[in-house]
């Protein structure tokens, strides 16, 4: 967002946020979902950390 703000002011921030939202929607669709509630923990692939079947948060 900072880059968008520096490059184009408010319009740049709006463009960055729109791009992030579009990318999230695309990724969600690739997972077979239409909304956040369609996602589940078993769709998450963790890299670098040992998976113990428990949430990291």
Helix- and strand-based class?
mainly alpha
Give the distance, in angstroms, between the N- and C-terminal Cα atoms: 25 Å
- Uncertain stretches: none
How many strands in all? Answer: 0
**Count of helices?**
2
Mean residue pLDDT: 84
Q: Summarize the main sheet.
A: none
Query: For the CA atoms, what is the radius of gyration?
Result: 16 Å
Beta content comes to under 5%
Order of helices and strands: HH
Shape: elongated
SSE arrangement:
Layout: H1 2-8, H2 10-30
Q: Could you characterize what this model shows?
A:
This protein is mostly helical and 57 residues long. Helices cover 49% and strands 0% of the residues. The protein contains two helices and no strands. Helix 1 crosses helix 2. The longest helix has 21 residues. The model has no long low-confidence stretch (mean pLDDT 84).
Write a concise synopsis of the structure shown.
By secondary structure, the protein is mostly helical. The protein is about 50% helix and about 0% strand.
Question: How would you describe this structure in keywords?
Answer:
57 residues, mainly alpha, 49% helix, 0% strand, elongated
